[in-house]
Structures are given as C-alpha cells and as structure tokens.
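Encode chain A's predicted structure.
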Amino acid sequence: MDFAQPPRRPRAESIVPMINVVFLLLIFFLMTARIAPPEPFEVSPPETRAAEAADGTLILYVGADGQVGYSSLTGEPALEALIEETAEGPLILRADAALPGPELARLLARLRSAGIGHIDLLVQAGG
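Encoded structure for chain A:
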C-alpha cells in the first residue's frame, strides 16, 4: 500500500497586488483632480435668448449689492487675487441680474484699468 502524499496543486496567482495598484491609482487621480470650488455667494445671472458657452478658468462673482467674490475670497482681497492671476485666461463675470448698471460699469472700468482685456458676462438661457 502506498501512503505517499498526493502531489500538491500549484497555488493560483494572488490578485491582492493588482487590487493594491488599482487603489493607489484611484487615490492618485482623486488627489490630482481639479474640483470646482464652491461659489462664494448665490448669484442669479441675467437671462438671454441666445447664449453661447463661456470658456475660461477665472470666474468673478458679483452679487446684487455689488459685493465681489473670487475663489474663496470676497471684497477687495478677491479683486487683488484675481488681478494677480489674470495670465491664466479670459475672465468670466458671473453677475447677479439685480446688479445696478452703474455698479457693473465701475467694476468693468476697474478691471480694464488693471489690464484685464477679455471679459465674458455669464448669462443663463431664458425664454
């Protein structure tokens, strides 16, 4: 009678290293992704019938009371930070529909004197 041990089957390849790599890639992409910052305050843009898509990375928010916001800053520091970063591209102005015209004109003149030449006014499509 033969009491020898039967030959062992070879172990299958472990999938744990591949799972580790997938999770590391997921963490890498989450850390390097650019997530849109929250709006500093609520703005409802004016409506228009023919709207084109605005393209740009710099967004300046202007409330109905004339308060400005950029990124997480509001007021004068927001304008100063925006003027420093104008090299990135055109500026998108997201102004509230209730903003008085003279306030908007003063802001546009100030931005123009700071050297910001390309400003797109963001509007929402309406009926």
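The first strand starts at residue 47 and ends at 48.
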